[in-house]
Amino acid sequence: MSTDSTAVPLDPTQALALAERAQAAAVRPRLMPGWYGPVIGAVLAGYGVLTGVAQAYDLTWLMILDCVLMGLGIGLAVQLAARSTGVVNRPTQLGGWRGFVFGGTGAVVLAAGVGGAIGWAVRGDALGADAAAGVAAGLAMWVLTLLANRRARREPAAA
Question: What is the domain extent for residue 115?
């Protein structure tokens, strides 16, 4: 195989610095794809709307189908995101991210609760409550992925 580059000898200090940069890049958190937050948000919003419709019109079969579709949608998105960013090839390390992950989960749950309460107050029925809860959770998830990517960009590389 032919290349246009030529080998440049490195002195030991340069080689060590290059190795340290490569090590730091290998352990730095990867960014989530830009489409991940909106897709998960849309899945959660759709789940809320369909659950509201199912409850409002007493359609048990739609509620079951809704759960299956939500699981499928989130599962596919997670698989695609993990494979496209190479996350599958490395072990998961929460480290300093533990508080962010658990706090973010709490924020999504809180958003769903507040959204559901507002939806109930506005419409007074399950459709309004569930739809608003799903949309609020979806928006919170989208914001959470944006914040996670911003944090990953700012985080210094671990040595």
Answer: 31-153
Longest Cα pair distance anywhere in the chain, in angstroms? 74
Yes or no: say if 58 and 66 are a contact pair by the CB < 8 Å rule: no
- Report whether 97 contacts 29 (CB < 8 A): yes
Q: For residue range 69-124, what is the model confidence (pLDDT) as tens digits?
A: 887 777 777 767 766 665 544 445 555 666 777 788 788 888 988 998 999 999 98
Number of domains in the chain: 1
Is 52 part of a structural domain of the chain?
yes
Question: Over the stretch 24-48, which tens digit does the pLDDT of each residue have?
Answer: 766 666 777 888 888 888 888 888 8
Determine the Cα–Cα distance for residues 116 and 122; give it in Å rounded to an integer: 10
Angle at 74 between CA 37 and CA 67, to 5 degrees: 130
